[in-house]
């Protein structure tokens, strides 16, 4: 085992010779070295070896150092050449003034050339400035030559001094016969030269002068730096011990013992899943302070000419009077946000590319001037110019100013506000001690600590235009205290009205920002407060306006744009942990050590804290109340347990016992004090009604109170709404109600409000203003054509003597029922199931009377008890989830995707009903991929099913057909596979109806929809639309499309990506629940967008018509729901073509209820089927190979990105899946290679979490 001791400071200096180090190594097996430590500012001793011998080795090393003496050690300063001559200092000052003048002239010339090029006097002004700049440049050139001569002379003098020291050292060593003494003297000579070079290197002012002179001086310095680096490497090779990485003891043990695949231990899970997990992300926003943004984006910074990287025309580095009269440029103190010319991604990239071209040309002067104009510092190693990163990053769209640093941190706007306001109060004759006394009377919530007792007396800065000396959290507490002081002291006496308004606006801004993500919904209010505060702040405290005052104008729009409110409070709190580690690490392994320790602590926090990801939870000691559920039975029977704590964590902060919580309704708050949660529940009904009821029945308590309240509200609702129900009691038609009560608007409003609130939904009419802005026409509602009359497409079937009783698992929006209605066949949904609950209103209105509907958890096909089927059932029609076999799904099949179990569950229903001699016909629909042979299989999944059915279910005739939607009068390319079955006693299985014919896409598109509003699109979509327009122009040029054609393409996909943008001509691609951004484009690109026939998204109603449904299907629901429903639905004409011949056979057949589904025959068939399915899944796994603990097998992806990882999950009925991945085997090593290994290992480690899976039907696949 090797231990390390040191660094041990040596105040008097000293050194160890090579013989000294060899002696220590021989006697104690310990490596020792003395080296100058930059962190300590002096020479230090370091030892490395067996722990039990370090003390003795240290003692011997100190004796040898004292023996050598300080004269034999290395000197810390060079008395020769340490100071610059007076001539250099004077010259440096002159050069600084000249450089400032040159920068001013260069900036003015840039403004003239860029903004006043068209003015008549631009040429005269530019010539004058050029003459002045040439004179200044000539003066600077002469001074530079003088500086070069002085510096070269100084260099020669230093070199002569070093040679003299070296010659003296050699003469001393020649006179001494001792070898150790000779080596010590050599070391002393080396040390003298070394320290002189270190002093030279540390002189920053001399380096600044040398940077301005000729390349000869830079070459001399470069040569000396190389020699210095060689000296340091020789010293390290002489025996410098490597310092170990600092890790906690328990982590050292884990790193030493870790081996094998990555495995993460998960808690509260019953099943274990191992494997590798791949996470992909894109850069959304960079939240940081000004310093980090400057380094990341290569900016010139707040003190530069361009202090804001988001605005083109905001300048600084000069007085506001210099640009006050300019028509385009504005100073950063400007409070009119309409004058800010915002950068776009294109404009910023143009600046970046321009700098790269100038840098390639080699003109450093032009590069510096142009960079100052742009506010950028060219860095070929920066992310903006990185060959692979430059197209992935854009400061304009990815920068988020941190409101903590901008407002409340050191130098923030709020700090200036508090300081100047306190001084204004002091000028009224109110001492600062009064403010401190007032602050001590304020009781703050538990989560907020009060400011120090003498905060205002000690922290207020008396200097002009200065900010308070305080932490960010202290400023956030001081603001509401001062706002309360304003309301109680200043405003009643009409003192400092403008100062008070300004500070209250700042308090309002901070109050909105501290609402976490709630600030997103208050972005407009925040923007108004920022604008008003900016005007007052600039008027009252003009000397306190800094670039941060401008940055705060961007904060509201950034919060609204990114949809999240973030700050640096949490990252700043981690500084203490990082500094605690860094203060004890002095070698190159600091990056690895910090990453490992912080990563380890984070994983431990997630593993040990169950509440870390919960938005609301109890904190501190939590006590469970015995019989607490029984005590609350009068309120709800669903209460399972009651826990108590003194604190609760909420999304807006910590609420503790004793805190006051503001209620929105005063009356309801008073009632809540008396009647508790019962009021909160019934307050949704009507506040006035509940209040009147409680005052009329003060004697009621407990269950009697609840029953009486329920009866009173029910009577009131019944009296108001029941008479307006239709015959089926399903909905009220808003149009009919408006006609009926046109003369009684108050009663109409009450009926609509009460019916919507208590009983059933009112069938709404979509108003133009309720539709998305992209789909509203100037004239009113969109006119969606419906070119097909499906009742005329298929031959008439005639009258049926009975309704067909259907089982509809995975019903979706009931495409099967739609096909039955178009064919004119009566039916009843005997057993309708779907796990999707959002279509309930549509299904209740659409399904015939007498149908039995199970939705949500009750509609889970996988967990259905067959004994619960509502029988008899004559026909089963279903479309189980398709992702296990779909091209844009995971294509995991039966073994790799748990959603395939839904298909198996539907098959179980079908086999049970067939074995019970009840079912007469079956139709199952899915994608064409179900016919493909997947990896590890010898047959497709459909072939496996068909083989089993033909062998074990011979009572039926079975067949498979493939139909294309475009052949059946739909303008959509959608291929579907149908598994059909008919009882053999009824007859042979008939073929589907022949195609209905083809229709052009334009027959399905509305012509009165406006073009898309490009400003409402995301930046990526705007770019994709421009790229698509260029592609279409190229296609027109190559005559790949004609002027009458229509193209449809996904706007959320780009060329060259994994999922590429593909164009469909005169036909719509397959509608799915994911391609919601399908864009329709006509070829009249010569016209502006607003004049083009089609330049918009595909309307949700058009999607419905393209699937064969009515355009009013799910009318009134959200667009996203309609898009998802249309993508998952059956194409109605395909189902009509399949069902028509089968229904023709069933028309003359007899039907009766079958036997028990629990008898031996049914059980035997189901057992055979389950065993067959299991063998198919196992066969697939065996062919693929043994289970890979690092992850599943890869499959080819659809693009150049390479294979995508598909995670296999073992499905267990009734339980959640779990995964665990072993903690990463991360060990920090010295240098960059070790750091990269540590980062990769930490990324691979996963935190403890539970993974639950819920089966989805075709309606939400």
Arithmetic mean pLDDT: 75
SS class: alpha/beta
The helix tally amounts to 42
Termini gap: 58 Å
Q: Can you tell me the residue ranges where pLDDT is under 50 for at least 5 consecutive residues?
A: 71-85, 172-192, 208-217, 235-277, 721-731, 756-780, 1183-1235, 1237-1261
Strands side by side in the biggest sheet: 17-16-15-18-19-21-20
- Strand content bin: 5-15%
What does the main sheet amount to?
7 strands, mixed
What is the CA-atom radius of gyration, in angstroms? Answer: 40 Å
The coarse silhouette is: globular
Give the fraction of residues assigned to helices. 40-55%
Q: Count of DSSP E strands?
A: 27
Walk me through what this model shows.
The protein is an alpha/beta fold. The protein contains 42 helices and 27 strands. Helix 14 (413-427) runs antiparallel to helix 18. The protein is globular, with a radius of gyration of 40 Å. InterPro entries: C5_MeTfrase, SAM-dependent_MTases_sf. The active site is at residue 882. Keywords: Coiled coil, Methyltransferase, S-adenosyl-L-methionine, Transferase. This is DNA (cytosine-5-)-methyltransferase.
């Amino acid at each position: 085992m090797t231990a390390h001791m040191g660094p041990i400071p040596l105040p008097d200096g000293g050194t160890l010779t090579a013989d000294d180090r060899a002696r220590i190594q021989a006697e104690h097996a310990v490596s020792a070295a003395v080296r100058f430590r930059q962190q300590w500012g002096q020479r230090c001793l370091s030892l490395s070896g067996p722990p039990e011998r370090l003390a003795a080795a240290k003692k011997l090393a100190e004796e040898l150092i004292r023996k050598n003496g300080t004269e034999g050690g290395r000197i810390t300063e060079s008395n020769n050449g340490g100071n610059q001559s007076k001539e250099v200092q004077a010259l440096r000052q002159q050069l600084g003034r000249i450089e400032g003048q040159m920068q001013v002239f260069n900036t003015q010339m840039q403004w003239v050339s860029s903004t006043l090029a068209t003015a008549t006097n631009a040429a005269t002004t530019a010539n004058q400035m050029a003459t002045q700049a040439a004179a200044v440049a000539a003066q600077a050139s002469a001074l530079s030559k003088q500086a070069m001569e002085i510096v070269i002379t100084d260099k020669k003098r230093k070199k002569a001094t070093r040679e003299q020291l070296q010659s003296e050292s050699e003469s001393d060593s020649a006179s001494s016969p001792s070898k150790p003494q000779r080596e010590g003297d050599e070391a002393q000579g080396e040390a003298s030269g070394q320290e002189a070079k270190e002093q030279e290197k540390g002189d920053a002012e001399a380096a600044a002068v040398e940077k301005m002179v000729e390349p000869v001086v830079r070459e001399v310095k470069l040569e000396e730096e190389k020699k210095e680096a060689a000296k340091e490497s020789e010293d390290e090779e002489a025996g410098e011990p490597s310092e170990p990485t600092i890790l906690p003891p328990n982590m050292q043990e884990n790193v030493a013992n870790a081996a094998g695949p990555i495995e993460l231990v998960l808690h509260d899970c019953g099943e274990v899943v191992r494997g590798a997990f791949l996470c992909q992300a894109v850069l959304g926003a960079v939240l940081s302070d000004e310093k980090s943004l400057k380094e990341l984006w290569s900016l010139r910074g707040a003190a530069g000419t361009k202090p804001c990287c988001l605005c083109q025309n905001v300048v600084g580095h000069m007085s506001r009077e210099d640009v006050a009269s300019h028509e385009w440029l504005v100073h950063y103190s400007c409070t009119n946000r309409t004058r800010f010319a915002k950068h776009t991604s294109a404009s910023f990239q143009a600046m970046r590319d321009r700098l790269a071209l100038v840098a390639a040309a080699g003109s450093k002067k032009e590069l510096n001037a142009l960079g100052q104009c742009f506010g950028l510092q060219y860095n070929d190693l920066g992310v903006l110019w990185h060959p692979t990163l430059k197209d992935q990053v854009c400061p304009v769209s990815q920068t988020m100013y941190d409101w903590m640093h901008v407002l409340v941190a050191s130098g923030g706007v709020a700090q200036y506000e508090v300081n100047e306001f306190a001084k204004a109060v002091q000028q009224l004759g109110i001492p600062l001690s009064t403010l401190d006394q007032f602050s001590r009377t304020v009781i703050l919530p538990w989560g907020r600590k009060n400011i120090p007792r003498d905060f205002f007396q000690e922290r207020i800065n008396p200097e002009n235009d200065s900010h308070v000396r305080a932490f960010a959290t202290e400023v956030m507490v001081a603001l509401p205290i001062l706002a309360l002081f304003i309301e109680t002291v200043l405003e009643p006496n009409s003192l400092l009205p403008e100062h008070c308004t300004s500070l209250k606006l700042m308090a309002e801004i901070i109050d909105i920002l501290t609402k976490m993500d709630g600030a997103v919904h208050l972005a407009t209010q925040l923007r108004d407060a920022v604008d008003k505060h900016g005007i007052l702040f600039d008027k009252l405290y003009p000397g306190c306006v800094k670039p941060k005052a401008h940055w705060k104008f961007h904060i509201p729009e950034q919060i609204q744009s990114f949809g999240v409110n973030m700050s640096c409070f949490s990252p700043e709190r981690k500084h203490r942990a990082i500094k605690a580690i860094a203060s004890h690490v002095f070698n190159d392994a600091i990056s690895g050590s910090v990453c490992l320790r912080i990563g380890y602590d984070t994983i431990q926090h997630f593993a040990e804290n169950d509440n870390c990801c919960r938005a609301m939870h109890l904190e501190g000691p939590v006590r469970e109340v015995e019989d607490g559920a029984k005590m609350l039975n009068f309120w709800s029977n669903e209460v399972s347990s009651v826990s108590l704590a003194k604190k609760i964590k909420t999304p807006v902060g910590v609420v503790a016992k004793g805190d006051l919580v503001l209620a929105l309704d005063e009356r309801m708050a008073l009632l809540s004090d008396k009647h508790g949660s019962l009021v909160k529940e019934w307050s949704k009904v009507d506040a006035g009604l509940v209040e009147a009821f409680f005052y009329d029945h003060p004697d009621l308590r407990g269950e009697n109170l609840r029953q009486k309240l329920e009866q009173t509200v029910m009577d009131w609702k019944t009296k108001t709404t029941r008479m307006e129900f239709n015959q089926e009691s399903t909905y009220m038609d808003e149009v009919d109600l408006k006609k009926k009560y046109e003369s009684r608007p108050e009663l109409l409003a009450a009926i609509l409000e009460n019916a919507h609130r208590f009983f059933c939904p009112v069938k709404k009419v979509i108003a133009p203003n309720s539709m998305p802005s992209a789909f509203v026409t100037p004239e009113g509602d969109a006119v969606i054509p419906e070119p097909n009359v499906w009742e005329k497409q298929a031959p008439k079937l005639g009258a049926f003597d009975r309704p067909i009783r259907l089982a509809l698992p995975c019903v979706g929006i009931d495409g099967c029922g739609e096909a039955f209605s178009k064919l004119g066949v009566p039916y009843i949904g005997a057993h309708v199931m779907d796990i999707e609950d959002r279509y309930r209103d549509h299904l209740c209105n659409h399904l015939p009377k007498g149908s039995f509907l199970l939705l949500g958890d009750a509609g889970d096909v996988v967990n259905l008890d067959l004994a619960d089927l509502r029988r008899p059932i004559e026909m089963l029609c279903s479309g189980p989830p398709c992702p296990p076999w779909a091209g844009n799904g995971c294509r995991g099949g039966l073994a790799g995707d748990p959603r395939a179990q839904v298909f198996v569950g539907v098959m179980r229903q079908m086999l049970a009903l067939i074995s019970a001699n009840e079912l007469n016909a079956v139709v199952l629909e899915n994608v064409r991929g179900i016919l493909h042979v997947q990896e590890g299989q010898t047959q497709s999944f459909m072939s496996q099913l068909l083989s089993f059915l033909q062998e074990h279910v011979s009572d039926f005739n079975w067949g498979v057909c493939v139909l294309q939607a475009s052949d059946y009068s739909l303008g959509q390319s959608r291929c579907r596979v149908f598994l059909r079955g008919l009882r053999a006693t009824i007859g042979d299985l008939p073929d589907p109806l022949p195609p209905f014919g083809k229709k052009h896409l334009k027959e399905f598109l509305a012509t009165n929809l406006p073009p898309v509003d490009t400003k409402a699109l995301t930046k990526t979509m705007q770019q994709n639309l421009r790229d698509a327009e260029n592609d279409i122009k190229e296609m027109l040029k190559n005559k790949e499309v004609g002027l009458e054609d229509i193209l449809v393409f996904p706007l959320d996909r780009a060329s060259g990506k994994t999922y590429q943008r593909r164009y469909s001509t005169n036909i719509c691609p397959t509608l799915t629940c994911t391609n919601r951004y399908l864009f329709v484009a006509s070829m009249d690109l010569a016209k502006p967008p607003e004049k083009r026939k089609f330049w918009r998204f595909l309307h949700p109603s058009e999607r419905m018509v393209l699937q064969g449904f009515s355009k009013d299907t799910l009318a009134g629901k959200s667009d996203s729901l309609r898009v998802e429903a249309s993508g998952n639905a059956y194409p109605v004409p395909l189902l009509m073509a399949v069902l028509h011949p089968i229904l023709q056979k069933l028309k003359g057949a007899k039907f009766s209820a079958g036997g028990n589904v629990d008898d031996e025959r049914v059980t035997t068939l189901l057992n055979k089927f389950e065993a067959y399915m299991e063998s198919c899944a196992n066969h697939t796994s065996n062919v693929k190979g043994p289970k890979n603990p690092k992850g599943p097998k890869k499959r080819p992806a659809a693009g150049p990105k390479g294979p995508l990882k598909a995670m296999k999950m073992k499905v267990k009925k009734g339980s959640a899946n779990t995964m665990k991945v072993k903690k990463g085997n991360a060990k920090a090593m010295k240098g960059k290679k070790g750091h990269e290994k540590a980062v990769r290992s930490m990324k691979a480690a996963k935190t403890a979490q539970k993974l639950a899976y819920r089966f989805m039907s075709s309606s939400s696949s």
